[in-house]
Fold:
Amino acid sequence: MNANVAPERVVSLIDGEWVDARGPRLAIHYPATGAQVSELAEADAEEVDRAVRAARRAFENRSWSRMPVEARQALLMKCHDIVLAHADELALLECLNLGVSLRELKERHIRRAAFNFRFFSEVIGQGAGEVYDQTAGYRSIVVREPVGVAALIAPWNAPTALASMKVAAALAFGNTCVLKPSEQTPLALARFVELLHEAGVPPGVVNLVNGRGPVTGAALVANPEVDLISFTGGTETGRAIMAEAGRRLKPCTMELGGKSANIIFASADYDRALDAALASIFSNNGQQCLAGSRILVEKPIADRFIADFTARAARIRIGDPMDEATELGPLASAGHRDRVLSYAGIARSEGLEILHGGAAPQGLPEALWGGYFVQPTVALAPTNGARTCQEEIFGPFATIQVFDGYAEAMDKANDTAFGLVSYVWSDHLPTIERATRDLRSGVVWVNTTMTRELRAPFGGYKDSGVGRESGPACRDFYTEAKTITVPAEPITPRRLGA
Ligand code: NAD
Structure:
Protein backbone atom coordinates (compact mmCIF):
# COMPACT_ATOMS: atom_id res chain seq x y z
CA MET A 1 0.00 0.00 0.00
CA ASN A 2 1.31 3.41 -0.93
CA ALA A 3 -0.18 5.46 1.90
CA ASN A 4 2.35 8.26 1.81
CA VAL A 5 0.48 10.03 -1.01
CA ALA A 6 -2.24 10.87 1.51
CA PRO A 7 -1.88 14.21 3.29
CA GLU A 8 -1.27 14.01 7.00
CA ARG A 9 -4.44 16.00 7.60
CA VAL A 10 -7.34 17.18 5.47
CA VAL A 11 -8.60 20.68 6.19
CA SER A 12 -11.01 23.14 4.58
CA LEU A 13 -10.06 25.10 1.49
CA ILE A 14 -11.66 28.54 1.63
CA ASP A 15 -11.14 31.42 -0.78
CA GLY A 16 -8.32 29.54 -2.46
CA GLU A 17 -6.40 28.88 0.77
CA TRP A 18 -6.06 25.85 3.02
CA VAL A 19 -7.23 26.91 6.47
CA ASP A 20 -5.52 26.19 9.77
CA ALA A 21 -6.99 23.09 11.35
CA ARG A 22 -9.16 23.97 14.34
CA GLY A 23 -11.95 21.45 14.84
CA PRO A 24 -11.98 17.91 16.23
CA ARG A 25 -9.92 15.32 14.35
CA LEU A 26 -11.52 12.31 12.70
CA ALA A 27 -9.38 9.37 11.63
CA ILE A 28 -9.39 8.25 7.98
CA HIS A 29 -8.81 4.55 7.45
CA TYR A 30 -7.70 2.41 4.53
CA PRO A 31 -10.61 -0.05 4.31
CA ALA A 32 -8.45 -2.92 3.05
CA THR A 33 -6.33 -3.03 6.20
CA GLY A 34 -8.06 -0.83 8.74
CA ALA A 35 -4.87 1.23 9.08
CA GLN A 36 -5.21 4.95 9.67
CA VAL A 37 -3.90 6.82 6.62
CA SER A 38 -4.84 10.40 7.40
CA GLU A 39 -7.12 12.50 9.55
CA LEU A 40 -9.69 15.16 8.95
CA ALA A 41 -10.08 18.41 10.85
CA GLU A 42 -13.80 19.02 11.14
CA ALA A 43 -15.22 22.39 10.12
CA ASP A 44 -17.69 23.88 12.59
CA ALA A 45 -20.49 26.33 11.81
CA GLU A 46 -18.13 29.29 11.95
CA GLU A 47 -15.73 27.75 9.45
CA VAL A 48 -18.62 26.77 7.22
CA ASP A 49 -19.85 30.34 7.39
CA ARG A 50 -16.45 31.60 6.25
CA ALA A 51 -16.64 29.26 3.27
CA VAL A 52 -20.15 30.37 2.39
CA ARG A 53 -19.20 34.03 2.70
CA ALA A 54 -16.21 33.47 0.42
CA ALA A 55 -18.53 31.88 -2.13
CA ARG A 56 -20.95 34.79 -1.73
CA ARG A 57 -18.20 37.37 -2.34
CA ALA A 58 -16.97 35.48 -5.38
CA PHE A 59 -20.50 35.41 -6.71
CA GLU A 60 -21.28 39.04 -6.00
CA ASN A 61 -18.18 40.45 -7.67
CA ARG A 62 -19.63 39.19 -10.96
CA SER A 63 -16.37 38.45 -12.72
CA TRP A 64 -17.25 34.78 -12.32
CA SER A 65 -21.01 34.81 -12.77
CA ARG A 66 -20.78 37.03 -15.84
CA MET A 67 -17.68 35.49 -17.36
CA PRO A 68 -18.23 35.11 -21.12
CA VAL A 69 -19.33 31.60 -22.00
CA GLU A 70 -16.32 30.90 -24.19
CA ALA A 71 -13.93 31.84 -21.39
CA ARG A 72 -15.82 29.65 -18.94
CA GLN A 73 -15.80 26.78 -21.43
CA ALA A 74 -12.02 27.11 -21.76
CA LEU A 75 -11.65 26.98 -17.99
CA LEU A 76 -13.92 23.95 -17.67
CA MET A 77 -11.78 22.20 -20.27
CA LYS A 78 -8.67 23.04 -18.24
CA CYS A 79 -10.37 21.41 -15.25
CA HIS A 80 -11.09 18.37 -17.43
CA ASP A 81 -7.47 18.15 -18.54
CA ILE A 82 -5.94 18.57 -15.10
CA VAL A 83 -8.19 15.92 -13.53
CA LEU A 84 -7.32 13.49 -16.30
CA ALA A 85 -3.62 14.29 -16.02
CA HIS A 86 -3.79 13.40 -12.30
CA ALA A 87 -5.98 10.31 -12.71
CA ASP A 88 -3.43 7.96 -11.12
CA GLU A 89 -2.93 10.16 -8.09
CA LEU A 90 -6.65 10.81 -7.60
CA ALA A 91 -7.51 7.14 -8.00
CA LEU A 92 -4.91 6.18 -5.41
CA LEU A 93 -6.18 8.76 -2.92
CA GLU A 94 -9.74 7.61 -3.49
CA CYS A 95 -8.72 3.99 -3.04
CA LEU A 96 -7.02 4.80 0.26
CA ASN A 97 -10.27 5.87 1.92
CA LEU A 98 -12.85 3.98 -0.13
CA GLY A 99 -11.35 0.60 -0.93
CA VAL A 100 -12.84 0.30 -4.41
CA SER A 101 -10.36 -1.27 -6.81
CA LEU A 102 -7.76 1.05 -8.21
CA ARG A 103 -8.58 -0.16 -11.71
CA GLU A 104 -12.29 0.63 -11.36
CA LEU A 105 -11.46 4.04 -9.89
CA LYS A 106 -9.09 4.94 -12.70
CA GLU A 107 -11.15 3.57 -15.55
CA ARG A 108 -14.59 4.66 -14.39
CA HIS A 109 -14.67 7.16 -11.54
CA ILE A 110 -11.84 9.57 -12.36
CA ARG A 111 -12.48 9.47 -16.09
CA ARG A 112 -16.08 10.30 -15.37
CA ALA A 113 -15.02 13.14 -13.06
CA ALA A 114 -12.95 14.67 -15.87
CA PHE A 115 -15.67 14.07 -18.43
CA ASN A 116 -18.22 15.94 -16.29
CA PHE A 117 -16.30 19.17 -16.98
CA ARG A 118 -16.11 18.52 -20.69
CA PHE A 119 -19.78 17.63 -20.75
CA PHE A 120 -20.95 20.83 -19.06
CA SER A 121 -18.56 22.90 -21.14
CA GLU A 122 -20.33 21.52 -24.21
CA VAL A 123 -23.78 22.01 -22.67
CA ILE A 124 -23.26 25.72 -22.07
CA GLY A 125 -21.80 26.13 -25.54
CA GLN A 126 -25.14 25.05 -26.97
CA GLY A 127 -27.43 26.98 -24.63
CA ALA A 128 -30.32 28.90 -26.15
CA GLY A 129 -33.11 31.06 -24.79
CA GLU A 130 -36.82 31.28 -25.45
CA VAL A 131 -38.76 33.94 -27.34
CA TYR A 132 -42.53 34.50 -27.12
CA ASP A 133 -44.18 36.89 -29.56
CA GLN A 134 -47.75 35.60 -29.58
CA THR A 135 -49.01 38.61 -27.64
CA ALA A 136 -49.54 41.23 -30.36
CA GLY A 137 -47.05 44.09 -30.17
CA TYR A 138 -44.83 42.46 -27.59
CA ARG A 139 -41.85 40.24 -27.51
CA SER A 140 -40.83 38.39 -24.38
CA ILE A 141 -37.49 36.71 -24.06
CA VAL A 142 -36.38 34.34 -21.33
CA VAL A 143 -32.79 34.45 -20.18
CA ARG A 144 -31.07 32.29 -17.61
CA GLU A 145 -28.96 33.66 -14.77
CA PRO A 146 -26.93 31.81 -12.15
CA VAL A 147 -28.71 31.33 -8.84
CA GLY A 148 -25.85 32.13 -6.44
CA VAL A 149 -24.12 30.01 -3.80
CA ALA A 150 -24.67 26.27 -4.12
CA ALA A 151 -24.19 23.84 -1.23
CA LEU A 152 -23.02 20.54 -2.69
CA ILE A 153 -23.20 17.54 -0.37
CA ALA A 154 -21.71 14.27 -1.55
CA PRO A 155 -21.76 10.63 -0.38
CA TRP A 156 -18.82 8.29 0.14
CA ASN A 157 -19.55 5.55 -2.39
CA ALA A 158 -18.21 7.35 -5.49
CA PRO A 159 -16.85 10.55 -3.99
CA THR A 160 -15.07 12.21 -6.89
CA ALA A 161 -17.29 10.92 -9.70
CA LEU A 162 -20.44 12.22 -7.99
CA ALA A 163 -19.16 15.44 -6.43
CA SER A 164 -17.47 16.51 -9.67
CA MET A 165 -20.82 16.35 -11.46
CA LYS A 166 -22.24 18.83 -8.97
CA VAL A 167 -19.18 21.12 -9.06
CA ALA A 168 -18.98 21.10 -12.87
CA ALA A 169 -22.70 21.86 -13.25
CA ALA A 170 -22.73 24.61 -10.62
CA LEU A 171 -19.68 26.28 -12.18
CA ALA A 172 -20.80 25.90 -15.78
CA PHE A 173 -23.95 27.90 -15.10
CA GLY A 174 -22.06 30.66 -13.25
CA ASN A 175 -22.67 29.74 -9.61
CA THR A 176 -20.13 29.56 -6.83
CA CYS A 177 -20.17 26.69 -4.36
CA VAL A 178 -19.22 25.07 -1.11
CA LEU A 179 -18.55 21.35 -1.39
CA LYS A 180 -18.92 19.01 1.57
CA PRO A 181 -17.66 15.50 0.88
CA SER A 182 -18.52 12.58 3.11
CA GLU A 183 -16.43 12.61 6.27
CA GLN A 184 -15.31 9.07 5.38
CA THR A 185 -13.86 9.94 1.98
CA PRO A 186 -12.29 13.40 1.88
CA LEU A 187 -8.89 12.50 0.41
CA ALA A 188 -9.26 12.62 -3.37
CA LEU A 189 -11.78 15.47 -3.26
CA ALA A 190 -9.37 17.69 -1.33
CA ARG A 191 -6.76 17.18 -4.06
CA PHE A 192 -9.45 17.59 -6.73
CA VAL A 193 -10.48 21.01 -5.39
CA GLU A 194 -6.83 22.01 -5.21
CA LEU A 195 -6.37 20.95 -8.83
CA LEU A 196 -9.32 23.08 -9.92
CA HIS A 197 -7.53 26.09 -8.45
CA GLU A 198 -4.34 25.09 -10.27
CA ALA A 199 -6.40 24.99 -13.46
CA GLY A 200 -7.38 28.63 -12.88
CA VAL A 201 -10.71 28.55 -11.03
CA PRO A 202 -10.67 31.86 -9.11
CA PRO A 203 -10.46 31.86 -5.30
CA GLY A 204 -13.84 31.66 -3.58
CA VAL A 205 -15.61 30.02 -6.53
CA VAL A 206 -15.14 26.48 -5.20
CA ASN A 207 -14.74 26.11 -1.44
CA LEU A 208 -14.32 22.89 0.47
CA VAL A 209 -15.42 22.07 4.00
CA ASN A 210 -14.99 18.71 5.69
CA GLY A 211 -16.73 17.06 8.59
CA ARG A 212 -19.62 14.97 9.76
CA GLY A 213 -23.12 15.43 8.37
CA PRO A 214 -24.87 16.55 11.54
CA VAL A 215 -22.06 19.07 12.25
CA THR A 216 -20.55 20.46 9.05
CA GLY A 217 -23.32 19.37 6.68
CA ALA A 218 -26.12 20.67 8.87
CA ALA A 219 -24.33 24.02 9.32
CA LEU A 220 -24.02 24.34 5.55
CA VAL A 221 -27.67 23.53 4.92
CA ALA A 222 -28.80 25.98 7.61
CA ASN A 223 -26.58 28.84 6.45
CA PRO A 224 -28.86 31.66 5.22
CA GLU A 225 -26.39 32.67 2.49
CA VAL A 226 -26.76 29.34 0.72
CA ASP A 227 -29.12 29.71 -2.24
CA LEU A 228 -29.56 26.11 -3.37
CA ILE A 229 -28.65 22.61 -2.27
CA SER A 230 -27.65 19.60 -4.32
CA PHE A 231 -27.53 16.45 -2.24
CA THR A 232 -26.62 12.85 -2.98
CA GLY A 233 -26.90 10.37 -0.16
CA GLY A 234 -29.30 8.33 1.91
CA THR A 235 -33.07 8.80 1.85
CA GLU A 236 -33.42 9.67 5.54
CA THR A 237 -30.65 12.29 5.33
CA GLY A 238 -32.35 13.67 2.23
CA ARG A 239 -35.64 14.03 4.09
CA ALA A 240 -33.96 15.99 6.91
CA ILE A 241 -32.10 18.28 4.52
CA MET A 242 -35.16 18.91 2.40
CA ALA A 243 -37.23 19.78 5.48
CA GLU A 244 -34.62 22.35 6.49
CA ALA A 245 -34.35 23.66 2.93
CA GLY A 246 -38.13 23.93 2.78
CA ARG A 247 -38.21 26.14 5.85
CA ARG A 248 -35.82 28.47 4.06
CA LEU A 249 -37.45 28.07 0.62
CA LYS A 250 -34.18 26.86 -0.88
CA PRO A 251 -34.47 24.76 -4.01
CA CYS A 252 -32.82 21.36 -3.74
CA THR A 253 -32.20 18.21 -5.71
CA MET A 254 -32.10 14.90 -3.92
CA GLU A 255 -30.35 11.87 -5.40
CA LEU A 256 -31.19 9.19 -2.87
CA GLY A 257 -31.22 5.47 -2.29
CA GLY A 258 -32.42 2.56 -4.39
CA LYS A 259 -33.42 -1.09 -4.31
CA SER A 260 -33.49 -1.68 -8.01
CA ALA A 261 -35.24 -4.64 -9.58
CA ASN A 262 -33.23 -6.55 -12.15
CA ILE A 263 -35.90 -8.48 -14.08
CA ILE A 264 -34.67 -11.40 -16.12
CA PHE A 265 -37.31 -12.90 -18.37
CA ALA A 266 -36.97 -16.37 -19.83
CA SER A 267 -36.73 -14.63 -23.22
CA ALA A 268 -33.45 -12.91 -22.20
CA ASP A 269 -30.04 -13.54 -23.73
CA TYR A 270 -29.12 -15.78 -20.82
CA ASP A 271 -25.34 -15.40 -20.75
CA ARG A 272 -25.40 -11.63 -21.05
CA ALA A 273 -28.11 -11.32 -18.42
CA LEU A 274 -26.10 -13.48 -16.03
CA ASP A 275 -22.87 -11.50 -16.55
CA ALA A 276 -24.72 -8.23 -16.16
CA ALA A 277 -26.61 -9.37 -13.05
CA LEU A 278 -23.29 -10.09 -11.34
CA ALA A 279 -21.77 -6.78 -12.48
CA SER A 280 -24.88 -4.83 -11.48
CA ILE A 281 -24.74 -5.90 -7.86
CA PHE A 282 -21.05 -6.52 -7.17
CA SER A 283 -19.39 -3.56 -8.95
CA ASN A 284 -18.02 -0.82 -6.70
CA ASN A 285 -17.94 -3.44 -3.92
CA GLY A 286 -21.74 -3.49 -4.01
CA GLN A 287 -22.01 0.11 -2.83
CA GLN A 288 -24.06 1.73 -5.56
CA CYS A 289 -27.37 3.56 -5.48
CA LEU A 290 -28.18 2.02 -8.86
CA ALA A 291 -27.19 -1.54 -7.96
CA GLY A 292 -29.41 -4.28 -9.35
CA SER A 293 -29.83 -5.63 -5.83
CA ARG A 294 -33.26 -7.22 -6.23
CA ILE A 295 -32.99 -9.87 -8.91
CA LEU A 296 -36.28 -11.22 -10.26
CA VAL A 297 -35.90 -14.25 -12.48
CA GLU A 298 -38.64 -15.97 -14.49
CA LYS A 299 -39.59 -19.50 -13.50
CA PRO A 300 -38.52 -21.49 -16.59
CA ILE A 301 -34.88 -20.35 -16.23
CA ALA A 302 -34.83 -19.81 -12.47
CA ASP A 303 -33.11 -23.01 -11.29
CA ARG A 304 -30.33 -22.71 -13.82
CA PHE A 305 -29.87 -18.99 -13.20
CA ILE A 306 -29.77 -19.32 -9.42
CA ALA A 307 -27.19 -22.10 -9.62
CA ASP A 308 -25.00 -20.22 -12.12
CA PHE A 309 -25.27 -16.88 -10.35
CA THR A 310 -24.36 -18.41 -7.01
CA ALA A 311 -21.42 -20.36 -8.44
CA ARG A 312 -20.04 -17.27 -10.13
CA ALA A 313 -20.53 -15.12 -7.02
CA ALA A 314 -18.59 -17.71 -5.04
CA ARG A 315 -15.67 -17.42 -7.50
CA ILE A 316 -15.40 -13.61 -7.36
CA ARG A 317 -11.84 -12.68 -6.44
CA ILE A 318 -11.86 -10.82 -3.12
CA GLY A 319 -8.78 -8.95 -2.03
CA ASP A 320 -6.49 -5.98 -2.13
CA PRO A 321 -8.08 -3.16 -4.15
CA MET A 322 -4.61 -2.14 -5.37
CA ASP A 323 -4.23 -5.54 -7.05
CA GLU A 324 -5.32 -5.53 -10.71
CA ALA A 325 -6.83 -9.00 -10.36
CA THR A 326 -9.16 -8.08 -7.49
CA GLU A 327 -12.85 -8.04 -8.33
CA LEU A 328 -14.31 -7.24 -4.91
CA GLY A 329 -12.58 -5.08 -2.33
CA PRO A 330 -13.54 -4.17 1.21
CA LEU A 331 -16.53 -2.07 2.23
CA ALA A 332 -15.84 1.56 3.00
CA SER A 333 -15.95 1.39 6.79
CA ALA A 334 -16.09 -1.07 9.66
CA GLY A 335 -19.51 0.23 10.68
CA HIS A 336 -20.87 -0.27 7.19
CA ARG A 337 -19.39 -3.79 7.03
CA ASP A 338 -21.20 -4.65 10.27
CA ARG A 339 -24.46 -3.20 8.98
CA VAL A 340 -24.24 -5.18 5.73
CA LEU A 341 -23.42 -8.37 7.61
CA SER A 342 -26.36 -7.81 9.95
CA TYR A 343 -28.64 -8.35 6.96
CA ALA A 344 -27.50 -11.97 6.76
CA GLY A 345 -29.06 -12.50 10.19
CA ILE A 346 -32.15 -10.53 9.25
CA ALA A 347 -32.47 -12.54 6.05
CA ARG A 348 -32.30 -15.87 7.90
CA SER A 349 -34.82 -14.72 10.47
CA GLU A 350 -37.19 -13.75 7.65
CA GLY A 351 -36.97 -17.16 5.99
CA LEU A 352 -34.57 -16.29 3.18
CA GLU A 353 -32.04 -18.95 2.24
CA ILE A 354 -28.44 -17.71 2.08
CA LEU A 355 -27.03 -19.51 -0.96
CA HIS A 356 -23.57 -18.02 -0.60
CA GLY A 357 -21.76 -15.56 1.66
CA GLY A 358 -23.30 -13.71 4.54
CA ALA A 359 -19.99 -13.54 6.42
CA ALA A 360 -16.49 -12.13 6.23
CA PRO A 361 -14.28 -14.09 3.82
CA GLN A 362 -11.73 -16.55 5.16
CA GLY A 363 -8.24 -17.10 3.82
CA LEU A 364 -7.27 -13.54 2.97
CA PRO A 365 -3.57 -12.65 3.26
CA GLU A 366 -2.58 -11.58 6.75
CA ALA A 367 -2.03 -7.96 5.64
CA LEU A 368 -5.77 -7.71 4.95
CA TRP A 369 -7.05 -9.25 8.18
CA GLY A 370 -7.99 -5.82 9.56
CA GLY A 371 -9.94 -4.93 6.40
CA TYR A 372 -13.70 -4.53 6.11
CA PHE A 373 -14.40 -7.41 3.74
CA VAL A 374 -17.72 -9.13 3.13
CA GLN A 375 -18.24 -12.16 0.91
CA PRO A 376 -20.43 -11.71 -2.15
CA THR A 377 -23.76 -12.71 -0.70
CA VAL A 378 -26.68 -14.34 -2.48
CA ALA A 379 -30.02 -14.89 -0.75
CA LEU A 380 -33.08 -16.62 -2.14
CA ALA A 381 -36.21 -14.76 -1.04
CA PRO A 382 -39.67 -16.34 -0.96
CA THR A 383 -41.48 -12.99 -0.80
CA ASN A 384 -40.79 -9.44 -1.81
CA GLY A 385 -42.08 -8.14 1.53
CA ALA A 386 -38.98 -9.22 3.48
CA ARG A 387 -36.88 -6.37 4.87
CA THR A 388 -33.94 -7.80 2.96
CA CYS A 389 -35.89 -7.17 -0.26
CA GLN A 390 -37.20 -3.76 0.77
CA GLU A 391 -34.33 -2.00 2.51
CA GLU A 392 -31.24 -0.68 0.79
CA ILE A 393 -28.33 -2.80 2.06
CA PHE A 394 -25.72 -1.00 -0.06
CA GLY A 395 -23.26 -3.85 -0.10
CA PRO A 396 -22.41 -6.99 -2.11
CA PHE A 397 -25.74 -8.55 -1.18
CA ALA A 398 -28.10 -9.83 -3.88
CA THR A 399 -31.56 -11.16 -3.25
CA ILE A 400 -33.13 -13.42 -5.85
CA GLN A 401 -36.86 -14.01 -6.26
CA VAL A 402 -38.59 -16.22 -8.78
CA PHE A 403 -41.60 -14.89 -10.70
CA ASP A 404 -44.20 -16.58 -12.84
CA GLY A 405 -45.27 -14.41 -15.77
CA TYR A 406 -45.16 -10.74 -16.71
CA ALA A 407 -47.77 -9.43 -14.27
CA GLU A 408 -46.01 -10.89 -11.24
CA ALA A 409 -42.70 -9.44 -12.42
CA MET A 410 -44.19 -5.96 -12.62
CA ASP A 411 -46.00 -6.29 -9.28
CA LYS A 412 -42.81 -7.32 -7.52
CA ALA A 413 -40.61 -4.79 -9.31
CA ASN A 414 -42.87 -1.88 -8.38
CA ASP A 415 -43.56 -3.09 -4.85
CA THR A 416 -40.88 -0.90 -3.28
CA ALA A 417 -40.58 2.50 -1.66
CA PHE A 418 -37.73 3.30 -4.08
CA GLY A 419 -37.75 4.04 -7.80
CA LEU A 420 -34.27 4.85 -9.04
CA VAL A 421 -33.50 2.26 -11.71
CA SER A 422 -35.07 -0.88 -13.17
CA TYR A 423 -33.23 -3.39 -15.30
CA VAL A 424 -35.08 -5.50 -17.88
CA TRP A 425 -33.60 -8.46 -19.71
CA SER A 426 -35.59 -9.88 -22.63
CA ASP A 427 -35.22 -10.31 -26.38
CA HIS A 428 -39.01 -10.20 -26.83
CA LEU A 429 -39.81 -6.70 -28.04
CA PRO A 430 -43.44 -6.51 -26.84
CA THR A 431 -42.30 -7.52 -23.33
CA ILE A 432 -39.66 -4.80 -23.35
CA GLU A 433 -42.17 -2.23 -24.63
CA ARG A 434 -44.71 -3.08 -21.95
CA ALA A 435 -42.17 -3.18 -19.16
CA THR A 436 -40.66 0.21 -20.02
CA ARG A 437 -44.17 1.65 -19.67
CA ASP A 438 -45.16 -0.22 -16.51
CA LEU A 439 -42.01 0.20 -14.41
CA ARG A 440 -42.10 3.05 -11.90
CA SER A 441 -38.51 4.28 -11.84
CA GLY A 442 -36.54 7.24 -13.14
CA VAL A 443 -34.33 5.06 -15.33
CA VAL A 444 -35.02 1.76 -17.12
CA TRP A 445 -32.03 -0.08 -18.53
CA VAL A 446 -33.02 -2.63 -21.17
CA ASN A 447 -30.52 -5.40 -21.90
CA THR A 448 -27.71 -3.33 -20.45
CA THR A 449 -26.25 -2.38 -17.13
CA MET A 450 -25.17 0.87 -15.50
CA THR A 451 -25.18 2.83 -18.74
CA ARG A 452 -25.36 6.39 -17.54
CA GLU A 453 -26.32 8.84 -20.33
CA LEU A 454 -25.35 12.24 -18.96
CA ARG A 455 -27.50 14.08 -21.50
CA ALA A 456 -30.65 12.39 -20.22
CA PRO A 457 -32.26 12.95 -16.80
CA PHE A 458 -30.95 10.75 -14.00
CA GLY A 459 -32.87 10.57 -10.75
CA GLY A 460 -35.51 8.67 -8.88
CA TYR A 461 -39.24 8.27 -8.45
CA LYS A 462 -40.67 7.96 -4.94
CA ASP A 463 -38.13 7.72 -2.09
CA SER A 464 -35.23 7.65 -4.54
CA GLY A 465 -35.22 11.38 -4.97
CA VAL A 466 -36.51 14.71 -6.07
CA GLY A 467 -35.24 16.36 -9.22
CA ARG A 468 -32.86 15.09 -11.86
CA GLU A 469 -29.30 15.51 -13.02
CA SER A 470 -28.50 15.93 -16.75
CA GLY A 471 -27.61 18.80 -19.08
CA PRO A 472 -31.09 20.38 -19.25
CA ALA A 473 -32.12 19.37 -15.71
CA CYS A 474 -28.98 20.96 -14.26
CA ARG A 475 -29.55 24.08 -16.34
CA ASP A 476 -33.03 24.38 -14.83
CA PHE A 477 -31.73 23.79 -11.31
CA TYR A 478 -28.60 25.93 -11.36
CA THR A 479 -30.17 28.93 -13.09
CA GLU A 480 -33.04 31.31 -12.48
CA ALA A 481 -35.30 32.05 -15.44
CA LYS A 482 -35.79 35.75 -16.07
CA THR A 483 -38.56 36.87 -18.45
CA ILE A 484 -37.99 40.22 -20.15
CA THR A 485 -40.97 41.75 -21.96
CA VAL A 486 -40.52 44.64 -24.40
CA PRO A 487 -43.25 46.32 -26.52
CA ALA A 488 -42.55 46.94 -30.21
CA GLU A 489 -44.07 50.45 -30.06
CA PRO A 490 -44.39 52.91 -27.17
CA ILE A 491 -47.38 51.80 -25.10
CA THR A 492 -50.23 53.98 -23.91
CA PRO A 493 -50.77 53.06 -20.25
CA ARG A 494 -54.05 53.70 -18.43
CA ARG A 495 -53.86 57.28 -17.20
CA LEU A 496 -54.87 56.96 -13.58
CA GLY A 497 -55.56 60.25 -11.80
CA ALA A 498 -55.08 62.31 -15.00
P1 NAD B 1 -25.54 9.80 3.93
O1 NAD B 1 -26.91 10.28 3.71
O2 NAD B 1 -25.18 9.20 5.22
O3 NAD B 1 -24.48 10.99 3.73
C1 NAD B 1 -24.41 11.72 2.51
C2 NAD B 1 -23.78 13.06 2.79
O4 NAD B 1 -24.67 13.82 3.62
C3 NAD B 1 -22.45 12.99 3.56
O5 NAD B 1 -21.60 14.00 3.10
C4 NAD B 1 -22.89 13.26 4.99
O6 NAD B 1 -21.86 13.78 5.80
C5 NAD B 1 -23.98 14.29 4.75
N1 NAD B 1 -24.96 14.42 5.85
C6 NAD B 1 -25.38 13.47 6.72
N2 NAD B 1 -26.28 14.00 7.59
C7 NAD B 1 -26.43 15.30 7.24
C8 NAD B 1 -27.22 16.37 7.74
N3 NAD B 1 -28.03 16.21 8.77
N4 NAD B 1 -27.14 17.56 7.13
C9 NAD B 1 -26.34 17.76 6.07
N5 NAD B 1 -25.54 16.79 5.55
C10 NAD B 1 -25.60 15.57 6.13
O7 NAD B 1 -25.23 8.83 2.71
P2 NAD B 1 -23.92 7.97 2.47
O8 NAD B 1 -23.95 6.83 3.42
O9 NAD B 1 -22.73 8.87 2.42
O10 NAD B 1 -24.16 7.45 0.97
C11 NAD B 1 -24.87 6.31 0.68
C12 NAD B 1 -26.27 6.66 0.22
O11 NAD B 1 -26.19 7.54 -0.90
C13 NAD B 1 -27.05 5.46 -0.24
O12 NAD B 1 -28.36 5.52 0.24
C14 NAD B 1 -27.03 5.60 -1.75
O13 NAD B 1 -28.11 4.97 -2.40
C15 NAD B 1 -27.08 7.07 -1.90
N6 NAD B 1 -26.60 7.45 -3.24
C16 NAD B 1 -27.50 7.90 -4.17
C17 NAD B 1 -27.07 8.22 -5.44
C18 NAD B 1 -28.05 8.70 -6.51
O14 NAD B 1 -27.59 9.23 -7.50
N7 NAD B 1 -29.34 8.53 -6.33
C19 NAD B 1 -25.72 8.08 -5.79
C20 NAD B 1 -24.85 7.59 -4.81
C21 NAD B 1 -25.30 7.29 -3.54
